[in-house]
C-alpha cells in the first residue's frame, strides 16, 4: 500500500471534522485490525469507508500527555508535559494553541464530549480552550453509571458537566455520550463543525449493562466484549445521524486510541510487545483510520503515521 489517491471532487463547503478518541483500546481489539472475538460491525464499516493506517502511533503511552500532543499537534515534551495530569503535572500549557481554537478562526462550531484529562484550572476548561460546547468529565476516569454520592459532590473532577454545570445522566455513559453528540450534529445547520468525541470506553472501571453482558455469556473476555459492543453501537448511532442529516459524505473522521491497550481491561495488543504505560511498541502503536467519503478513496496506508498528523491535516 502506498499513498492514497484523493478523489477529484469539488466541494463547496469545508468538511465537518470528528476526532473519535477511544480510551485504552487494544491494538487487536477491532475487526478491521483482525479481531475475531469482539464484534465491531459499525466501526469496521466506517474503517472500510476510509483509509486504515497500519503503522500508526501516538506520542505518549498514557492518556494525558498523549491527548496533549494530539490537540496541539506538538510533541508534548516540547512544553514540559511528560506524565499524566494526576501524577503531579498541572495540565495542558495554556500558551499552546489547541486545535479547536484554530478551527474557530476558520468558522467552525466546536464541541467536546467525554473525557478531558488536560487540566482542572478554570483557564484549562474545554470552554476556555476553543470549544463552544462541552459535555463530559474533567478527570482521567469515572463510572459508566451515574453515582449520586460521587457525582453530586460540588466541584467533583469526575462528575459530568454540561458546559460549567454539574449534571446527572441516565443509562450507560457510552450511549449517553453518543446521544448528546448526535443532538449536537442535528443542531449544526449553518457552519461546519469540529467534534472531539472522547469516551472513557474501554478504560477501567470495567462496567457494562446487564443486557450487553448477557450477549457474551461464557465469553473469555465477557466484560470487554460487552463494553466494546456498547462503543460500537454508540459510534454506529452517530454515523446514522450524520447520514440522516446528509453530512456523512463530507465529514472527515479520525478514529484512534489514546495509547495501547491496558494490562487491566482484558485488551489485546497482539502481536506487539507490551501495553499501556511502558515504552514497548504496544504502548504507543494504535488502531487508526481516517474516513472522508467525498474526498478520500478507501484503502490502506502502510507507512509511518502519528496522532500528531491530525492537527496539521
Question: Can you tell me about this structure?
Answer:
- By secondary structure, this protein is α/β, with parallel strands linked by helices.
- The chain is 24% helix and 17% strand.
- It has eight helices and twelve strands.
- The strands form two sheets. The chain has a ten-stranded mixed sheet. It has a two-stranded parallel ribbon with strand order 3-12.
- A hairpin with a 2-residue loop joins strand 6 and strand 7 (165-167).
- Helix 1 packs across helix 7 (222-244) and helix 5 (173-187) runs parallel beside helix 7.
- The radius of gyration is 18 Å and the shape is globular.
- Mean pLDDT is 95; it is low at 1-6.
